Every structure is written in C-alpha cells, then in structure tokens.
C-alpha cells in the first residue's frame, strides 16, 4: 500500500508541482461524491484560467503605468484643459467635499500628473477632501467618507448558504441509488404488503439518508464558516495613520479616503494614494505590474498603488481611493478564485480511500452475487415465475449491496483532514497563531529543527538602556533617575552630541497619545533609545525642527547601521550613524573626549572600547554605537562610511521571556533542535542562548561571516552541532535553511520578521513570521504568523501539528477496523446463511458513526503533553504504521470472532426460542456491532498507551458524540424497530452487547503488549543530533 501511495499520492507540502497534482487526481477512482470530496481541492483548470486572467490584468496595469504615462507628455495642453472640467455630484458637494470619487481615483490609477496639477497639487487636493495633511482625518467624519468614497474592502465571493452544503451531500451516487431503491421499495411494498407496513423498509432508508445528509452538511457548513473567518483575519493588516493629530494603528478595513498613512520598510501600501513626505522611499510594484524593478517615490513621482510593497525608506501618503476603486481591488477578485493547494495528508488519504474503495466494491459485488444466487436457488417457482414479493426481495438485496459500498468507500477520510485542520486553525488562532497555509499545520508536526530569531521571540522585546560608555567611562543607567546625574557628569557639548545622535538619527516618532501621554512609535530598539534621550531633553520635535534632514539611509540587516545627513543651522552638514557596535567602531577614527572635543582614536583606545562592547554583550545586552561626522556642503548628498567621531556605546537590556527555557526543553525532549540565528553580537547571542538552554557545552556558536566562508562539506560537518549563529545576514539564514533541508533532510521551521527574511521563510518547510515586529512582506512569505512573537507559541503550533497528524491516524485506524468487520461479516454471512445480518438502514447508521461522527470525535481531539515526548515523524515515514496494522488486525479478528459466534451459535448459547428468536438475534448482532465500534473509538484515542481514558472528559466533543451515539442506538433498537428492522432487547441482552463491546478494551491492552519490529524507516526518526526514538507500546502506559 505504501509503495502505491508513494508512487501516486505523494505531493510536496509547499509549492507542489503541477505534474504531481495531476497525477494523484488521475489515480483517484470510485468517488461517490466528487462535489463534496474535492470541495477543498484546487481546481487546476480554473486556476490556470485565473492565472491567465491575472496576467492580462497585470499587462493592462503595466501599460497604464508605463505607456499611458509616456503618452501624456504628448497630449495637447488645450485638450487636457478641456478634459479637465471636473464634475462634482450633489452627494459629494453636500457631504462637504469638492472632488468626485472616480475623478480622484483616476489621478493615481493613471499616474496623471497633469490632472493632479489641474487640481493645484497635493495641498489643494487635501483641501478638496476636507483634510489637513498635519492633523489627518477627524474620527467623526469616517462614516461620511465611507459613504461617499467607499469602504476599503474588496468584492468577495459570497459565502455558500447552508442549503448548498445539503445539496452537495445529496450528490453522493450511492445515496441517490439508495433513494431510488427506497422509492421503488415503497411503490412495490404498498400493493404487496399493504399500508403502512409496505412503506417501512423504504421509509427507513429515506430517514437514515436524511439524517446522514443533515449531520454531514452541518459539519461541512461549520468548517466553511471557520475557514471564512480565518481568511478574513489573514487579510486584516494594521496600518499606522494620523487622525486628529494622534498617531494610531487601525485595521486596513477601516481606512478611508483622506487618511494620512505612515509607511516603512516591508509595509504593504494599503490603498491608492499620493506621497506627502519621506526619505528614500522605494516601492516594489511587481505584485501589480509584474515588473521587478523598484520605483522611487518622490514629489515628481508621487503615485502609490494599493497592494505594492515598501522595499526601502519611509514616508507618509494621502489616501485617494480605496477598495474596488483601486487596481489591487480588481486584481484581488480574480486571486480569490481557483482554490488553495491540497495538503499532503488530504492527498494521501484520497489514495487510502481509493484502495479501500476498490476492495469494498469487490466485496459489494461478490456479496450481491452470492445473495442473489442463494435467493434464486431457494425461490419458489424457479427462475421463470416472479411475484412482486420476489422483486421486492431482490431489490432489498441490491440495496444491501449498495449500502455495503456506502460503508466500504471511506469518503470521509480526506475530509477528516480538513475537519481536523479547521479545528486546529481555530484553536491556534485563539492561542495567538494565525495559520496562513493549511499544509503548515501538518508539516509543523514533523518539524525536527527550529531556527529562531532572538529579539522579540526568545526575549520580551521590551528594551531599556541600562549601560552607557561615554567620555571614556562606563556608567549604569538606573531606571529614569539617571538623566540629571549623567547630564551633570559630562560636558554640555557631549550631551548635545548625544541628544542629536539619538533624536536626529531615528525613523521613530514621539507623539501625544489620545490619553495625553507621550507615545513612541517605532521599533523596540528605537523606543529604548528615544526613552533614554528624553531623560535629557523632553522636546523631541524642537530638536528635529532645528535641523533640516537631507538624506536618510534606514537600518537594514545587511548594512547593520542607520545613517542620516542633516544641514546644521549655522551652515555645513553633519552625518550621524548608529548601529552594530563593532561596525560603527570600524568606521571611526576619533572619539569625543572628556572635554567634549574630538580626539584621535588610538589603537589602545580602540581595543579598550572593543572590550567594553564585549563586556556589555557578555551581560546579554544589545550594544549600539553612536557617531557623527561634520562635512562641508557636498553636491551628491552621499553619506560617507569612514572618519566618524564615536560619541557613545550603549547597552540595551532585553530580558528573556518567561517560560522560554521550559519551551526550549520541551522541544529538545520532542526531538526538535533549536538554533538561534540573530544579527546581534556573538557574546550577546551566546549569553541569551545559554540562559534559554539553547547553547550547550559541546555546541557551536559562530558568526555569519565565518559560516558563509566555509565549503559545503565543512558546513555539513558543522551544522549538526551549530546552535548559535550571530551577526548573520539574511543570506546566511537562507543558506542554513537550505543546507538543513537538502543535505541533512531535516524538516525546518524558521522565524523571520524583516523584508530580507522573506527568501528564508519561503525556502523553509514552515515559515514563521512575527505578528508584532514582522513586516507585511515577511508575513506574506510565511506559512504561520506568530501574533505575539513568542517562542512558546511556536512550540504550541508544533504540538497542534503533531495532534493533527496523530488524530488522523487514529481516525484511519478506527475507520479501517469498521470497514473490515462490516465487509467480512456481511460477505461471510451471505455465503453461509444466504442473508446479510446488517440491513441497509443499520449499515447507514454504522456509516454515520464511523464517518462523520467518528471524524468529529477523533479528528478534533486537543493535543496533550505526551505528544511532545516522542520524536517527530520523518519525511518518508509510513502513514499507516505497523502499530496501526497491529491494532486494526487484532480488533478486527476479535470483532469478527464475537459476531461470528453470535451469528451461528447465538440462539443456542443465549437460549433464544420462539418466533422472534431470529429477529432478536439479528438485533443483538447489530447492537453488539455498534457497541464494538463505540468502545473501539475509545481504544483509538491512543494507539500505543494502555490508558485510553486519560484526558477523555476534557474533550467535550468526543464525550458528546459518544453519549449521542449510545442514546440514539437505544432509540433505534427500542423504538424504531419497524423502520430499522430491530426488536426491543431485554436488559440481559443489552448487557451482553455492552460486555462484548467493552471486552475490546481488554483486547487492546493485550495487543499493545505485543512488541512491534523496528521499521525499515527507523532512520527517519533518528536524527543527526543524536535523539533516539522514545519508547513505545506498554512502556508509555
């Protein structure tokens, strides 16, 4: 089976090939209900059509951006003026605006500078929109702006109503055949058996079908609602805006025309708009136009398009159009079609369903042929004479055969994966993890390595300056009490240089919040620096306004520094730089002396400063250096990289998050290696890694430059013991991930927050983007967004991933056992006695227990801590394991033996006499069969441990389904006998049924004590870093 599945039903969990997707689709055979079974499977033909449509739209946008823009230069000015008679509708005028929504939208969409100039430029356009470029939109106007200019939402495909799920469920071919049989049965039964007896058989089938359809449709409908909510959350981006002078974060859905939006590296432009101000703003428009070359935004080219990404720099924009008035809105409508890729487990279980379906079809045909042959052999009047009763009997035999096919083809197997994933995604969302791609839930359960950032993931990201080296002395910063003491201990000139280095060289803002308190918007490092600077000088804006900023080079993970060039009030230029301490120190040839004057930096001083930096780093502090350089006026405004004067070295404390050490230990116990990959100083990284339990005595910590200089063979030798990589570039992280995946065959999860982390997130098996510190570019490249940036949440995702995988295995074990017993029981009974002990109605009820209800019970069980005490599943591990086969075969043999004894010796053993003895025995067999499945469902909760009741009552879905199944079974047997072909049973016989069913618990204990030989795939669960598979079977009881 595994070989067949691997050849035909094996797809990559990330970016599967078109060939693999087509191969498994062509291999699927005997699908009862394609509409339901393939509801969560991508439509390849539709996807190809959507891709062609998207490319056409991109081509149109490209023409609009490049060709039309060029053509505007040749338009006659008079014609342009004639075309620019701006029409304003009455609604717009009454709302207090002076520009029509379509006219406003066309300015940016067509990059029409002439039209913008015809409105007298940006300031006049803002006046027509009744908005101040300084204050922003007044909150009381938002509803009016949404009514006039529209909502920032795209036209979405309406969610499917409940009756559509009912209709999909009714498309099942076998159910349709059974409904036809039921109608014929009623039509034939009434004239032969009279009213109402003649309708019972047909009515029973119809009522069972109704129940199956209702339960299945409700389950599918609830899944669809969960996925819809998650999809909406995935698209919800928080945007920085200025409203009523206050800087705040709002949902992208709440953005309105007239909003002032703040953009920084990695952000997605949330709407069409016009550039107000900024520095080095560079936009990637490839998502719209397909062009990979970045576009520089400036006053002469102020147009910003929704859906594009900020590649570099920062800036502010005025929103001019939202929602469906943007090109991105139109493009999003097409992108929502075509569906998502199916997950590897869904594909694999389609393969399992195909194999079992073929076997089931063979059994159904054989059963029908045997029953028909026995019927014809015993029929009165021979083959030539037929009565209505004979026709009705033959129809019932056909209905039984079809019902066996209903039970035999496990249509619910692939759908159980969807159910389990939907449940896991919903729970993870409440645990602060947003799953963007379904397959990530599965794959995370197999993760054998996590490459994690340090800042914000292992640490709290609440940074405070606690140490500073200035004027040749290291000083401790104690809370907020140091300002005056430090200010008095150093010359005023040095203090001024320090304040300027902090306040002028930043992309953060100090604003007054809605509650009147001072708020700082920016990265945690920037906030820590500004909080420190505010101890000396409270008026941040005054300092900023005193100097004119000429050029800004924002911080990025490659340069590891941020630079700014400002014009001094008295003339001349000054460049400020801050960043990684050793990088900045290497750029300096002077330092600020104790008297405030710049003095040459000697080799001994350089060595002392390097020791100070190492000292700070060994205390687990992030270190930053600040420097400046005075220059004459320069024509090219370039910021140099040398001859700077060092002002200070600061040490920033970022404490380790509570619970991280325990979470790392949980990973190690689960066979998951944790590696820290950070841009910080090597000593800071080692100190934090030791505190977290990542770096061990025999582990390797090295810098990115040392790693990237190694050969491939050297890397393969180093990586198994590599635990910390410091001062790494994004390319180093990408290389590490690639080596782990391709050379060492690891399943790798990697965290990232910056724009430059996107390639590593894309390459990893599971990309984990940070929700707080992460940019939109990083989130878009990721599979899971960690909303609280916490390493503990990553471990939780791994636990849920393992839970999904093990839950599906439990369900498969349970369903295969029911399949085997139902098929063999009916077939053997048909061959020996000429009748099937389970009727069509009874088999339909069994099908619902093992399909929809079984999936709900087993596929939605929450994870337990024991899941993180076993090694991860290997890349090529068998899905149906030897342990599962042991349990399936053992339980099937027990149930077949018990039902066989009841079938052939039940009357004698139980002393059943009288006219109802056969009906009583058949009811007892049916009742026993159901209770065997109820207790086997409990057995399936754990495939290896003996104590299957642990945590059962914490899973309320499981308990409710068990109670409901038993309660409905009592109703069927005691009160629905005319429909279900049952008779009421005595308490003794109820006891017999329950006792035989409960005995399967003891059988399970015996089975779990049978040792299982080690699989040939043992290497898949033994990792290069020495983790051994943990004990299984009774040892884990």
Automatic annotation (TrEMBL):
**What does the record give as the reaction this protein catalyses?**
Ca(2+)(in) + ATP + H2O = Ca(2+)(out) + ADP + phosphate + H(+)
Keywords attached to this entry: ATP-binding, Calcium, Calcium transport, Calmodulin-binding, Ion transport, Magnesium, Membrane, Metal-binding, Nucleotide-binding, Translocase, Transmembrane, Transmembrane helix, Transport
The job of this chain, per UniProt, is described as: Catalyzes the hydrolysis of ATP coupled with the transport of calcium.
Please give the name of this protein: Calcium-transporting ATPase
Q: How does it sit in the membrane?
A: Multi-pass membrane protein
What are the EC numbers? 7.2.2.10
Occurrences of domain Cation-transporting P-type ATPase N-terminal (ranges): 116-190
TM helices/strands, residue ranges: 173-192, 198-218, 355-377, 397-424, 953-977, 989-1007
Q: Which GO terms describe its cellular component?
A: plasma membrane
Q: Which NCBIfam families match?
A: ATPase-IIB_Ca, ATPase_P-type
Specify the enzyme's EC class, one word: translocase
Question: Where mainly located?
Answer: membrane
